[in-house]
Amino acid sequence: MNAVEIGNQGLLVAAGLVVLAGLVSFAMRLRVESKLWIAAVRTIVQLGLLGLVLGWIFEQRNGYMVGAVLASMIINAGIAAVRRTERRFAGIWSSGLIAVTLSSVLTAAIVLTLVVQIRPWYEPRYAIPLLGMVLGNTLTGLSLCLDRVMSDLDEKRDVVEGWLALGATRWEACRPFVGDAVRTGMIPIMNSMSVVGIVSLPGMMTGQILAGAPPEDAVRYQIVVMFMIAGATSLGALLVGLLAFRKLVTPDHQLAYHRLRKLG
Fold it and tell me: 226, 193 in Cβ contact below 8 A?
């Protein structure tokens, strides 16, 4: 079974759904019509350009070129993860980038080399989409974890300083807060795994079925993707939580509250 191609007429019909969303905003006086139109135009332009670029990269199959694309994706994911937080500290950008890089590269490498067993590993039709799915979901977990650990150390600093004053090490005083932050970062992927196949059909599986792949094969790929995202999210949240902890609590077991600032 071949995939059904969507023509320009089909895209225009789909665009009518965005117009419907705009009408709802207008009728309810939500005042988001302009933002909605801008977002729709950006979607068309960005995905259109992406399609052209990916088509060219798929034809070239150049390892250096694929590596540059992957590096760009990772950097942008690290930036996006930090931008979603309400607080900042010196070194937060490098912490986010390190966590995103190590977690995404490790999990994607395991899947590409040991699970899918693609040769060469940088086959763009597999490497770019798989890493993109990992990054898109991992950065949400990282930002939630990062925001939670900073807010807890800020709002509950009296508790932390109390434990430190009683002789606790910095890890003993902060471990509950770091643990809660990592747990918070993992909530989205755990929720997704709990309802997948019952409430929702994920994009990876849906795309393969629409492209004509047997449902059994699509299910296997989706399972791999869900497990890959779970591993990357948990590792990334743990790394960014630990990096934030080390930045905000000194080796002398003192809370460096002065390093933390709230935006706005």
Answer: yes
What is the dihedral angle through the alpha carbons of 172, 174, 179, 181, rounded to the nearest 10 degrees?
A: 180
Which CA distances in Å does 46 have to 49, 69, 118? 5, 15, 28
Phi, psi of 100 (to 5 degrees): -65, -45
Are the C-beta atoms of residues 194 and 202 closer than 8 Å to each other?
no
- The CA distance from 223 to 205, in Å, is 9
| Phi, psi (deg, nearest 5) at residue 183 | -60, -40
Report which residue type is found at 122: Y
Phi, psi of 263 (to 5 degrees): -70, 150
Distance, CA of 249 to CA of 159 (rounded, Å): 13
pLDDT of residue 2: 58
Which DSSP state fits 13? H
Give, in order, the Cα–Cα distances in Å from 4 to each of 7, 10, 75, 141, 207: 10, 11, 35, 35, 11
Determine if the pTM surpasses 0.85: no
Contacts of 224 (CB under 8 A, 6+ apart): 111, 115, 116
Q: Tokens in use for 65?
A: 């070129």
* Residue among 141, 146, 124, 133 nearest 55 (CA): 124
Residue 4, pLDDT score: 66
Burial class (CB in 10 A: 0-12, 13-18, 19+), 104: buried
pLDDT band, residue 3 (cuts 50/70/90)? low
* DSSP alpha helix (H) spans, 28-91: 33-60, 63-83
218 is written with which tokens? 């699509």
